[in-house]
Specification:
The protein is an alpha+beta fold. The chain contains twelve helices and four strands; from the N terminus they run H-H-H-H-H-H-E-H-H-E-H-H-E-E-H-H. It folds into three domains: about 110 residues, no CATH class; about 70 residues, no CATH class; about 100 residues, Chitinase A, domain 3, CATH 3.10.50.40. It has a four-stranded antiparallel β-sheet with strand order 2-1-4-3. This is Parvulin-like PPIase.
């Protein structure tokens, strides 16, 4: 799931967006006047009240009572009063938290639309071709194993495994040999990553080199010594789009989203002249001085 989908999946984001839509609709329908912030008037419009009521309903799954709505309006007025007075005092200036919240809101506004994140014909194929290594289908192996426990057998573990291999080749059932273990006695076709997560990298590498259709070993793992019988082996290969289309689409969308946001930021940046003043030499020398022990 993409970052944007997770973002819009948050309930609080859903009802905030719904509130904004309703507020905008009411503002258009009611043609409420908007007082400039320099005015001392605080107008709680019908659209704003509808927004507060909708946000309450989405949170509590019921409409607000009149008392609750009055309390929401009072809270909004208090917030507006403190906001305006705080700005008069310049409390919003050089406030890192406030600045970051504004940045987050601007980044939200610059998010591309669904249409802009819809790939055109051939784009996913081209993306896969350019990033093929990241989508390779890993080697997969199906196998059986018999375990020999060093904790029980000590220095004779490898020798015991070699003796067991000899009797298996003479026709003895492998299931009758070995030591008890919580490890799986067999794994169906599994990726090398899955096998390594269970048995370890050394075991997996040995399994890749093992012959198909016969018992071989001894093979060492994180846990001890094994005999293995590889039933089937599929080599690593390049993926075709149908096999990895969900991952390719997700990654393409994420890359395209970053490109669009960076383009929009670049357009905003062209409106400004950025001057980075040299560091104060005296301050720099103080910062560079060793601490007194």
């Amino acid at each position: 799931m993409s970052l944007l989908r997770r973002f819009f999946g948050e309930p609080i984001i859903q009802f905030l967006i719904m509130g904004v839509v309703i507020f905008a609709g009411y503002a258009v329908l009611q043609d409420d006047p908007v007082e400039p912030e320099t005015s001392n008037a605080i107008v709680v419009s019908a659209g704003r009240i509808a927004q507060l009521n909708e946000m309450f309903s989405r949170t509590w799954q019921r409409p607000a009572t009149q008392d609750e709505l009055d309390a929401l309006i009072d809270a909004y007025v208090k917030e507006e009063v403190y906001y305006r007075e705080g700005r008069k005092l310049g409390l919003d200036e050089d406030d890192t938290v406030f600045r970051r919240r504004l940045q987050q809101k601007m980044e939200f506004l610059m998010e591309p639309s669904a249409a802009q994140l819809a790939p055109e014909d051939g784009e996913l194929e081209a993306y896969l071709a350019a990033n093929a290594d990241g989508y390779d289908i890993p080697a997969r192996i199906a196998f059986e194993q018999v375990f020999f426990d060093p904790g029980t057998r000590g220095d004779t573990t490898a020798a015991a495994a070699e003796q067991a291999l000899a009797v298996i080749r003479d026709g003895v059932d492998a299931a009758e040999l070995g030591d008890r273990t919580m490890l799986p006695g067999a794994m169906p076709l599994s990726s090398t990553a899955q096998i390594a997560s269970t048995f370890g990298v050394e075991f997996t590498e040995a399994l890749l080199a093992a012959p198909i259709g016969e018992w071989s070993g001894p093979v060492r793992s994180t846990f001890g010594v094994h005999l293995v019988n590889v039933d089937e082996k599929q080599e690593a290969r390049a993926a075709v789009l149908a096999e990895v289309i969900d991952n390719v689409r997700r990654d393409w969308e994420e890359e395209r989203r970053r490109e669009i946001i960076e383009e929009r930021y670049g357009e905003l940046l062209t409106q400004y002249s950025v001057v980075v003043e040299p560091a104060d030499e005296q301050a720099a020398s103080v910062d560079a001085a060793p601490a007194v022990q």
